Amino acid sequence: MSEPTVEEKCKPTSQQDLCIPRKKAPKDPCCSSLKIFIVALSFAYFSKTLSGTYMKSAITQIERRFDLSSSVVGLIDGSFEMGNLLFLAVVSHFGARLHRPRLIGMGCFLMAIDMISTILTLDCVKDTGSSMWIYVFLGNALRGIGETPITPLGISYIDDFAKAENSAFYISCLQTITLLGPMFGFLLGSMCANLYVDIGFVSVDSLTITPQDARWVGAWWLGFFVSSAILVLAGVPFWFLPRSLPRQGEEGNENFNVDQGNKEQFVLPNTHSVKLANIAKGFLPSLKRLLCTPAYFLLLCGIVLKFSSFIGLLTFKAKYMEQQFGQSASRHSLMSQCNQDCSCSTSEWDPVCSDSGITYMSPCLAGCTTFTGKGKNTVFHNCSCVLTPSPVEGSRSVSLGQCPRGPRCTRSFTSYMAVTVLSSFINSLGTTPGYMITIRCITTELKSLALGIQTLVMRTLGGIPAPVYFGALIDSTCLKWRVKRCGGRGACRMYDSNMYRVIFLSLTTCLSGCSYFFIIAVIVLLRKQFKKEEVKALQQTASKQNETKLQSPEMCHPD
């Protein structure tokens, strides 16, 4: 047989050229386990944000029910973060090596138990100044513990088994559905706030106050029933999902368990072979590697400031809108010449409204001597302290309740809500890129820990102190405190609305504005890093091309 020629050596064989068909890329099934997990996680995100938002919308009602100051209410709100940080680092580190879907399901059930335990305090409260608020504090902390595994384990599970190009899309879909939670949470809070706290036990017709009154306490406990039921439903699907999945696009690969077993073993080892002592040994080195990543550390600082602003705004936003858009703009002084013979108590709070739009603390301080009607329809007459447009002698009357805002405040409220929606939209644009930077700027095995530490630091430095110092500054604007039966200070009845607005908006703006300095530093750092990688990639490409040119003559010419 003759030896093959040079042309035959360089020409591909017919078997190479024709006999091996190109395999089509497998299509993603419409109902894969990963997509079912994403749907279940989306509902869990919706449920947890609904319950969290409802808790914040009920803060004002809890403040009035237990006669608390804003700083103590801020402490109750911060108990969620306290419970969350107790287990966050542990769950993020150990949970990535255990059955993540079931841990998420357990978290949903634990949050549902918290909601039920919070409701049980209703049967124990006999007096407005009861110390049973401590159980609300503990129940909210339990909700924080239950929420611990959802974000770090859920995001890392998606990123582990989804295609790299699909991760950002799935996470953005998750965040989009999450936005529905606060909307329904505030709607639920608004509905419950318009129902009296003892609904079913007290005749509504016998009440002399309305939901606009500072003494009104809404049915705050009712929304916890709804939240608890939704959380139970959200936790059920996770018990039927697998511990690990083939990476998206490889579902039809029969050799997945053989080929990919070693690859996934580091991230997801078998539960029976996991030794907690071995995992624990790697915790501190992993934490050191994580915090020594400059981009991650700077992003963490920016997130803490941004989260502090967000938590303070969300916690007291309902109170802010009530004070700025729900009460009268003008108020009258306490003791004066017109009521000095009435023996009025300055600690009494039973507001009445005059036709001139001025709210008085009580009928006595308004100088009223007679009244007609009963219940909500009571009208007081011959009020000597009431100011009228023209000082005409005769009957001057006031009605129960604080004076409503005028049309100008309605227009201001519309503008405020428009700005709020626009700012929320702008802020939401950075959520998905923030997640992607977090999980892309560190190595694969640190993803769950990175997300967990990020949430831990947010809760510790932002979530816990922010409601407390926001509440303390809001308390400094109080004009009239309720006096408890034992003589102590209760909840605030009236705020200086102008000072309230300046402090509240200035604090949120300063915290949010400072966070952008760190975000800009992260962008500059990543741009430099990407330029270095591009230069390195170009150098490697040029080197390979040179090697190919040098080897090609040897391949095509015989010795």
Automatic annotation (TrEMBL):
Gene Ontology process terms (BP): sodium-independent organic anion transport
Q: Name one GO molecular function term.
A: bile acid transmembrane transporter activity
Keywords of this entry: Cell membrane, Disulfide bond, Membrane, Transmembrane, Transmembrane helix
What SUPFAM superfamilies does the record tag this protein with?
Kazal-type serine protease inhibitors, MFS general substrate transporter
Q: Which GO terms describe its cellular component?
A: basolateral plasma membrane
Its name, as the record gives it, is Kazal-like domain-containing protein
Q: Specify the Kazal-like domain's residue ranges.
A: 332-387
Family matches, as Pfam families: Kazal_2, OATP
Q: Does the keyword Disulfide bond apply?
A: yes
| Membrane topology category | Multi-pass membrane protein
Database matches in InterPro entries: Kazal_dom, Kazal_dom_sf, MFS_trans_sf, OATP
PROSITE patterns, per the entry: KAZAL_2
The domain of life for this entry's organism is Eukaryota
Name the protein family. Belongs to the organo anion transporter (TC 2.A.60) family.
Q: Where in the cell is the protein located?
A: Cell membrane
Positions of transmembrane segments? 30-48, 68-91, 103-122, 169-197, 218-240, 295-316, 456-474, 503-526
